[in-house]
Amino acid sequence: MADPISIVGLITGVVELADMVFVRTFLYVKAVKERDKDRLALNSEVGALFGILSRLQLLSGAMEGGEEEEEDEGCKPVLQAVHLDNCLKTLLTIKSKLDVHEGHGHALRSALKTLRWPFTSSEVGNLLMEIERHKKNLLLALAADGLSALLGALSMQGEIRETVHGIESELNRVALNDQRRQILDSFGSTDPGKNHDMSRKLWRPNTGLWLTNGTEFRGWLTNKTARNIWCYGIPGAGKTVLASAVIEEVLKCRSHSVAAAYFYCDYKDANTQDPANILGSLAKQLIRQSERCFKESEAFYEVHHSGKQVSTSYRPDELRDLILQMSSFFNQTMIVVDGLDECGKDTTTVVELLSSLSKSEKSSVQTLFLSRDEIEIRETLTDCNPLSIAADKGDLQLYVASEIGARMKNKRLHINNKSIGEHIMDRLVNGANGMFRWAACQIDYLCELPNDRERCRALETLPPDLESTYERILGRVDETNIHVRRLVQRTLRWLVVAKEKLTISALREALTMKDGISRLDRDAVPDEFILLRSCSSLVRKSASGQGLELAHFTVKEFLLGIEPDSEFSAYRVDAEESEVELGKACLTYLTLQEFNSRVSASREAQLKRRQEYAFRYYAVRHWLSHARGRPGNPSLLALIQKLLDPSKPWTFIAWTHDHQSIFWFEKGDPTWWQTPLTKEEQKVYDEVATFTPLHYASAFALPEICKWLLDCGCNVDHMSGFGTPLHHALRGPESLLVLYWEMGFEPFIIEWRKESVLEVVDILLEAGADPNGECAERKTPINYAYSQPDIILRLLKKGARYKGQNAYEPWPSGWAQKIILNIGRENFHEDDYAFLLQDSYKGNAMEEKILPE
Question: Could you give the CA distance from residue 801 to residue 792 in angstroms, rounded to a whole number?
C-alpha cells in the first residue's frame, strides 16, 4: 500500500508522462500537412486526460498539506494507486512507440516528418477506449459534490489509520508488563523500523511490481515454490527501496499461523552489522507475534540471567536456535534481510547464520535476502534461488517523471521548453543502465544549471557511471572558494566515521570547531542550505528530516577509495585521520568556556544544555570512541588532558553529569527528562562526585592519561564510591555505576581493549597501587581479574592475595583450576592455592559461556 505523500509523487509522475505524450502526439500532428484523424483523436484524448490529471494533482497538493503532520502515523491508502495504475500503463505504452527519436525542438520536428505513424487504426481505437475508461474513473473521483468530495474521501485517512493500528495491535498479541519489557529489551534496541520508514519515503507507488507481482516472489510468498530467494544487483539499482516493497507485501500476510520479520543492514550504523543485533531484532519481532514465542523467550531469558540484574549478551548462535524453535509455532515464518553486503568484516558470519535458519527440517523459516553479487555471499547462499535485480525501465520512467515534476513544482527546476523535459527523461532512462542512484544524481545536477541550453549540453556529456558522477560533483565543489571546499571535506569525512546519525544542527555546530577556540561562535555556524547545496547528491536528510547522512553506500566506498595521487585527493577519507578530527571536535566542544561555570545535576540544567548546544549529546557520547587508542596525536592528547584535568574544572563536572544521564539513566528514553530527579538518582550523582579523573582514565583504559595524571600528583589509591583506580581499571566502564545495578539501571558498556587495560594496570602498580585494597563490595583487584591470567600474574607478583571468602561474588567454578594451569602453581601463596581448589560458584551457565580455552 502507498502512503499519501507517495501518492502525490505518483500523481506528479503520471501528469508529467501525460504531458510528454501529449506534446509528442501533437508534434506528430504538426509534422504532416494532411489532417490525420487517428493522430488528431489520440492527441485530443491524451490532452483531455492530461487536463483531468492536472486537476487531480491540484487536489493532491491540498491533501499533502493537510496530512503532513500525520505522515508519521504510517497511513497507507491504496485507492489512488489503483485508479492511476492502468492509466500509467497506457501512457507508457503510447510513449514507448513514440520514442523513435531522441532529439528535441526543430531537429525532432524535422525527423518526425520522415517517420511513419507507429499505430494502426485498430490500435488507436483500442487506445482511445482505454483512455476513455481512465477519464471516467478519474472524473468519478472528481464528481459528486465537486472537488470537496474527493478531499472528503482523502480525509478518511484517519479512520484508515485507526484500522491499521487495530490490525497492528492484533498482530502484536503479547500484552506487555515491566517484566516482559525487560525480556524484550534484553534482545537489543536495534530498530529496523527507522530504515523501513526511510525506504518507504523513497519508494514510488506502482514501482517494483515486476518483482512483487512476479511468479517467483508470489510463489515464495505462498510457500509453493523456492524456500529461499537471493535478490542481487549492481550498486544503485534500488535494492533497499525494492526491499521495502517486498517487506510491505510480507507484513500483509501475518496471521496466527504466519509470522514475518525483517531487517536492514546499514553501512552507516555499525549496530545493524552486528550478528547478535540482527538475530536479536528478528527474534524480538517473532516474540511479539505469539504468546507461545514469548513463553519460549522467558525460558531463554531465565537460563541466561539466573535472576541477576546484570545484563548478559546472547551469542548469535543461541539467538539463531531460539528463532528456529519459535518458528516451529507457525506454519510459515518469512524473514527478509536487506544489505548483506553492508556488514563489513562480519559479512560471512552474518550470511552463514541467516542462511542456516531455513536448513533445519523442523524450521518453518523461509528467507529472502537482498545484496550485491559478491563472491562470499554467492558461495554461501547456494540453497537460495538467485534473482537478478536491475531497475525496470517502466519504474525508471515513472521515477524520473515524478522527480522532474516535483522539482518543477518546488521551483528547484525551471524548464521553459516542454520538449526538453521529455528529452531529459529519455536520456536519463536510457543512460541509467538499471541504476536509480545514477538517475537521481543527474537530476540533482540538472537542477543546478541556469537554463535549458546548459541542460541540453549536459545531457550530451553525462558521466557513464556513479564514480564519474561523484567526481563531477567534487569537480564543481573545487570551483568554489576554500571555505566551501573545507566545509564539504569535513562534512563528508565526519559522516563516514560518525558513530551514530548526526543531526544537522549538531553537525553545523561541530563544523565550527577549530584548534585553539574557547567559545562557540554562532556567527561561524554554516548555513543549512549552503551545506546541503554544496554537498549536492553526496548527502541527504534522514527520514526524520533532522539528521544528515551519506546518500548511498556507494558514496562511502567512493570517498574511501579515492587514490592519494588523484585530483580529488583533498576529498579522500582516511578513516584514522577522520576519527582523530571528529574526536578533537568533540573534546574541543566539551571544554568550551560555555560549560566552565557552576553546574547543577538537575534534569532542568542538563536538558537546557542539550537544547541550547546541539552537538553536546554526540560529543559526550562518542568522544572516547573517536579518541581512544590514538596516543600518537599530541593535540588530541592535550584535549583529553584538558577535559580530565586533575583540578576537576566545571567542564569536567558538567561532562560527568551528562555522561551519567546518557549512559546510565536516560537509555534513549525521551520521557526520562519529564520526571523529577529521584533520591536514588541523586545518590548516584553524589557518588559520581567521588570519582576523580584518574578513576575515569583507568576505567576507560587510557594509559597515557593515567601516567600523566599520576605525574600530576593524583592519589593512586584514592577511594571512590566504587573503589580505587585499580578496581576501576579491572572492572572497566561499568565500574562507574556497578553499585547501582540493583536499582535497575542497566549500564551501557563501552568496549575497551585488553592490551590497554594491561598497560594501565602496569602503570598503576608501578605507581604503588595497593594490590590487596578492598572496594565497597569488599573485593580486591584479583577478584575482578579472573578472566585475565596476565593481569592475575602481575597482581600476584605484587603480593596480591585472593580473598574469595570475603568477596561478594567468588570466582566461578572451574576457573581456579584453569587459572592455576595458565599461571603456574609456584606463583600462588600456599594458602591461596588450597583455598582456590575448594572455592566454587553455581553460575554454570555463565561458566560455559566465558571459560577460556
Answer: 10
